[in-house]
Amino acid sequence: QLRLVESGGGLMQPGGSLRLSCAPSGFTLDIYAIGWFRQAPGKERETVSCINKSGSSVGYADSVKGRFTMSRDNARKMVYLQIDDLKFEDTGIYYCAARFDFCGIDPGGYNYWGQGTQVTVSS
Questions:
Q1: pLDDT, mean of residues 40-47
Q2: Which whole-number Å values give the CA distances from 52 to 14, 49, 66, in the listed order?
């Protein structure tokens, strides 16, 4: 079964940092663009960032620019999302997903998803 596995979430304080990881299961990572998404309680899933297949281009939602950094290591078959200066509004379930062409904003355009990892920012 083709899927992704996220890890690295947890309970964090405002201002802290966190690195989320995303690993593929059952497929080769480097032929897919990878996106990170988050879903806060009672809200729709939001596209946070996306990285192209080679890692040469990354796009971010305006709400996270300057605090989120997405990267990938195709040799290690890993994708990362570094979150700095955590804010209360970063709370939510974070998902990674793979898309077999190029980055896109619409979550519906992604082919494979993970189960998500919970990030809670609380004082």
A1: 95
A2: 30, 10, 19
